[in-house]
Amino acid sequence: MKDIARVKKENNPGKRPGVVVSALQDFILRYPDYADFFKKKYAQTTTILFVPKGMRIEEDVAFHLLEQKKDRIYSRKIIIIAEEYSHLKTCVTLIVETVASHWPIESIDFFIRTGAQLDFLYDDQVPLFSNRVGERFLISFYLESRACVNCYVSILDDIAIQNNFEFFLLGSHAKANIEGFYLMADCQQLQLRVALHHEARYTESRLAINGIVAGNADVFFKGAVFVSKEAQCCRVAQKNKTLLVGDTATVSSSPALEILNNDVCCQHGSAVGNLDENHLFYLQARGMSEAQAKKILIEGFFDFLLKTLDNHGLKEDLLRRLKVKMRQIL
Amino acid sequence: MDIAGFCMDKKKCDLLEYIYKTQKGLSSHVVCQISEKKNEPGWMTDFRLKALTLFESLPMPKWGCDISSLDPSDIHFYLKPTEQQGNSWDTIPPKIKKTFEKLGILEAEHRFLAGLATQYESEVIYKSLMEKWKNKGVIFLDTGEGLRQYPELFKRYFASVIPPSDNKFAALNSAVWSGGSFIIVPKGVHIDMPLQAYFRIDASSFGQFERTLIIAQEGSSIEYVEGCSAPVYKKNSLHSAVVEVIALSGSKVRYTTIQNWSDNIYNLVTKRAFAYKDAQVEWIDGNFGSKVTMKYPSIVLKESGAKAQIISISVAKAGQHQDAGGKIIHEAPHTSSNFISKSISQDGGRSSFRGLVKVADGAKDVKASMNCDALLLDSISRSDTYPTIIVKEKSADVGHEASVSKLDDEQLFYIQSRGLSHQKAKALVVNGFIDAFVSKLPMEYAVEINRLIASDIEGF
Description:
Chain A is built from six helices and 17 strands. Chain A is of the alpha/beta class. A nine-stranded mixed sheet of chain A has the order 1-2-4-6-8-10-12-14-16. In chain A, helix 4 packs across helix 5 (290-306). Chain B has two domains: 20-295, no CATH class; 410-460, no CATH class. In chain B, the strands form three sheets. In chain B, strands 5, 6, 8, 9, 11, 12, 14, 16, 17, 19, 21 and 23 form a twelve-stranded mixed sheet that branches. In chain B, strands 4-3-7-10-13-15-18-20-22-24 form a ten-stranded mixed sheet. In chain B, helix 10 packs across helix 12 (443-458).
């Protein structure tokens, strides 16, 4: 794991002109226009990251939700605002290192204003603590017109928290692109819910989350797409493929669509299966052992997913952890 | 001429004087009255009363359609139209005969059916089976008659597929069931013509609760077709059937439903089949009418080599909510299933698809696919898709695909450029869309369905 504290220091966004990282009460003093909107919904102590109009932050801004000591937890909610035509790259890493009585974070809300772009990486590394079971973690994205979010979800070590993602495409031509993978083994449990609300015309969303489930793991994926009456001419594509290699593993996949107007193009697909026997035979006929053949096929399955990670600094670290995990599975 | 009988007559007909009816509402007294009227053995009365207790204790489903305006206290649970059941139309009261004649049922019987049962309100009033099949030992009775004539067999299979505790409306049906078909196809008998049942509700504020039990013995085959219709009334009626199918080793069952209830009917039906070794079960399910439909025909693949197919189509028009779909549960290895759903929403109708494919632990080498396509014909209609896949076996191969779209402008333009009107072009494209369903129907039915769809789309 790259030292997140160091990353924060190098790319300290707070040092850039106009960028604010503070508690909500301090932010409102500086930008009183936002007072009405935030006061209703958030506590004064909520942490906020504000990227001003036109600002481009191309290095990763890392939120390391580390729970080492109780007194290090500042707030249970985070707000991130990418102002008009700004560009922000950010990653959120969930790491829990000690057992604590309460969950460090409840939700993160992203407000992506007109024309802004957000590249977001979610890296879930929560190990097993029995008192975490059923905890709910919600990440919401509110997109104005022509805003765009590229979200990458990586779940390798999760045990039992509920990962919830919500995308509200509120302005026309808003775009959400969600990709990701999960690699579950042993007794891991994953709950992943992604909801996409198309509320405006010409909005577009694409979701492709695929994974490998081994050992005794249990995966529950729920994708929900809502298309409102106003969201004419929108496009939706959802895909969820799972490679099931565990003898006692369970996969449950439920990609739902709710569509209230007719000028749409919506598709979804979901597949659960094992490695293709013909592919295995082909490789084994060329002198490979079964284990080697399986490894190549599983690596192949993930390769196309990792391509999209190129822009993120954490790719190497993810790859390293992925390889360790893969060795466990094989 | 509507020979298949489901381009229905939605006009009110002359009301019949029923020879017996229970008072409105549901109570143990009503249940006992029904049981007594049918002269049933004690175990069946107990079964009904237990089911009534279950119905009262189970909660209303919180998902799916809005059925809050359904009021059981405003419904007659049993209406007996005639004293005798006939096997000749001459013995049927002329008013009822006229209704079925208008629906084309009589002509269909002559032309292409192996057997026919017609249920009017709570009772089967007419049933017939061709001599050829009688001689081969095929049993085709109404369910009450089945209980009287084959009590041992009946007790063994009845409620073995759908127990009253399955859901609230299965419990309701178990408490007040009346009519339906009881069919046993003996070993190795292939009935190569369809058997048809026709269900008609002419009364308002009435509940029809038929109970069908089909047992296909080893190596036999049967095709069963049911059609439903009712005239339009201001007050709501309820149709809550339970259908149990048992397909023993090597048998083949195709169960086709074409439901065209009028839009004051709540259609809440439970249907399930058990498929044993190498058996094949197909549900061909067409939902065109009713105010609200909640129907998810299921197939449980119990033994290896069994095959399942569900083809479901629903058309939701103004004021209708068609919540249809199905469930396929693979409990055994080397089983396969195919699930195709097509839905069309127009004039503000809402169609929902709810599908489940489940592969149990140990069910090796299962192949399953689920496809669901929806067509939205205007901007005020709605389409929902809720598929679920649960896999507990690594060798399973399960896929699901869905798409929702409007009519393709290019296709419409192509057809219109050949001289057809816009409405006709639309009807043609929609008929192409549901081809997977129509191609599974006997020819006479396919023609009728195409005509029904065309008249719905073209609006006359």
